[in-house]
Amino acid sequence: MRRLAFIVPVIVFLGIAAVLAVGLGRDPKILPSMLIGKPLPTFNLPDVRAGTGGRGLASADFHGKPGLINVFASWCVSCRIEHPFLMRLKAEGVSIHGLNWKDKGDAGARWLTRFGDPYDRVGYDPTGRTGINLGVTGAPETFVIDSKGVVRYRYVGPITPEVWATTLKPLLDKLEAEA
Amino acid sequence: MKRLLALVLALTVVAGPALAVLPEEQLKDPVLEARARHLSKELRCVVCQNQTIDDSDAPLAADLRAILRERLVAGDSDKQAKAYLVQRYGDFVLLKPPINPATLFLWFGPALLLLGGGFGVWRYWRGRSVAAPAPLDPEEQARLKALLSETS
Q: Is A46 on the interface with B (CB under 8 A)?
């Protein structure tokens, strides 16, 4: 009984300490996505780039093979940081679709002309509603969609070579194998 | 000078904090607008996370305020309008988290800890009173008497 009176508080303390220690390692700015395991919300957006026939990005495009949606905007500083790596991925033959989120007019198109266009298809979402339906909290964010149009992963922040090599690429390869 | 000071002080009393909600965002129907204001005080801005969407100047918070008003105009109940945002951003957008299995410890943990601690303290004090010293036997009483007579 004496021992129990000693052990119980220690166990309770260690339990709370463990929970708090895990919490310390997490970034509270990153909200978990509500869409994981759910189909993409329906959208059909025009292209922000001129001369592409107006065919932008639609949720129906994500059928048959896995795909990436990268949320970007001309006002987004982190997108500039991420951009060179996206260009590198494009050069390696990776298909990335863009969602030009909450940009005014052709600001997104001009941004792509100026810095380079790493995207396959680009959807223009000036009102931000498609982004909000996706649960976007900021740019850049990247969604991994499987061949059935189901959202499998969401990455918040600029994609770095490490994130690509350790998380996104392996997941895409796995989804590719499933398809 | 004193008058000026009094005026300034009086003005600071009536001055409210600057509002994030812009006049053009507001609904014409005062009842709906009041509901929207009330609801937006319970919803967290997902950009500046310790502000409500009512307080926040973030563009995304303005979008969420607009969506909230659209839902109310479309005839949603307060609950449905909140659920619309929870569906997209999770329980995180609710400043008051709902009671569900994941939040049970959050809601009842402190009370449990208090009860547990209280029980521990109660046990401790009870244990002490049970272990009250046994009365002195005749030999000890004799020694006590001797010691007392020594000092006096």
A: no
